[in-house]
From TrEMBL:
InterPro entries according to UniProt: BABR_hydratase, CruF, CruF-like
Organism of provenance: Haloplanus aerogenes
UniProt-annotated stretches for the region Disordered: 1-20
TM region positions: 36-54, 66-85, 92-115, 135-157, 169-191
Entry-linked Pfam families: Caroten_synth
Keyword vocabulary terms for this entry: Membrane, Transmembrane, Transmembrane helix
UniProt-recorded name of the protein: Carotenoid biosynthesis protein
Top-level division of the source organism's lineage: Archaea
């Protein structure tokens, strides 16, 4: 290149590090263009694989493979994670990190003492563990609370401004989600309660423990998230609740298979709640090439 060429030493445009808004736009587009695959295909396939594993229809390399379980969970969580990403400032990051530590600590105590969830232990390998607690625990638990929080904000509307209404409703919604999750997980054999219990093998103490954990988690999230910014984001991010769609499809299907009709009915109520948010017309779930 000639000596006088001003672009001789200019960095290639392709090597420029994307800004945070640019990266966010790319992630938004990626999730938006794959909504059906993420929110419908993954949970349906996941439910089939989990049930097949529980029924002994899959060979050991595939049966309850912890890598596939964690990978599938992360993919289904991606709409929520991408949706909330612009709101995670330093304050929110510290709060969420604290909740992750809390989740590990309370699970560690629960496994060794039976408090606050009741006597239980894991049966299925859910991936790497630290002191017996799955490393992926925050990925399994915290998004459930976030989903409940977002759903309640949308359904409550103006009433969500009042903490005395907002917080108890979100906490109750989190516990209701466990009415769907725990019976399905016990039926699959993820974990077990040796003393059994009246709710499809789940003791009432488990739900009391969830009241405690839901209260702690909801109070922290409510304190560290900017609710006004969150509502603004929800206006422009139609896929933020797609993880809850996955939750309803996967765990309702599992509960139906095992005859946990009450748990499946609660899952159906969440489906009705999602429809009432008016964010799930047929168009977003049609692959772009078919529109």
């Amino acid at each position: 290149m000639a000596d006088g060429d001003d672009g001789a030493f200019a960095p290639a445009a392709s090597t420029r590090t994307p800004t945070r808004p640019e990266m966010q736009a790319r992630l938004d587009a990626l999730v938006r263009d794959n909504r059906f695959t993420i929110a419908v295909v993954f949970p349906v396939v996941g439910a089939v694989l989990l049930v097949a594993s529980a029924e002994g229809l899959l060979p050991p390399p595939l049966s309850f493979d912890p890598f596939l379980i964690l990978l599938g969970t992360l993919v289904m969580r991606s709409p929520l994670l991408v949706g909330l990403a612009p709101l995670i400032d330093r304050r929110a990051a510290v709060g969420i990190a604290g909740l992750a530590v809390y989740a590990y600590a309370i699970e560690f105590v629960g496994l060794r003492t039976g408090w606050p969830y009741g006597d239980f232990h894991y049966v299925i390998d859910l991936g790497p563990t630290v002191a017996g607690v799955p490393v992926g625990l925050p990925v399994f638990f915290l998004p459930l609370v976030c989903n409940a929080y977002l759903l309640c904000l949308l359904l409550l509307g103006d009433r969500a401004r009042w903490a005395r209404i907002r917080l108890p409703v979100v906490i109750a919604t989190v516990v209701a989600m466990d009415l769907v999750l725990d019976p399905g997980a016990v039926a699959l054999g993820f974990w077990t309660y040796p003393g059994s219990g009246p709710v499809y093998g789940v003791p009432l103490s488990n739900f009391a423990g969830w009241v405690l954990s839901a209260t702690v988690t909801v109070l922290v999230l409510d304190a560290v998230l900017d609710r006004t910014a969150l509502l603004d984001r929800l206006e422009s991010c139609e896929f933020a609740l797609d993880d809850l769609v996955s939750f309803v499809l996967l765990w309702s299907a599992v509960n139906v298979w095992f005859g946990n009709w009450g748990a499946a009915a609660v899952g159906g109520l969440f489906g009705v709640g999602l429809l009432r948010t008016e964010r799930f017309d047929s168009t977003p779930f049609v692959p772009p090439r078919l529109r």
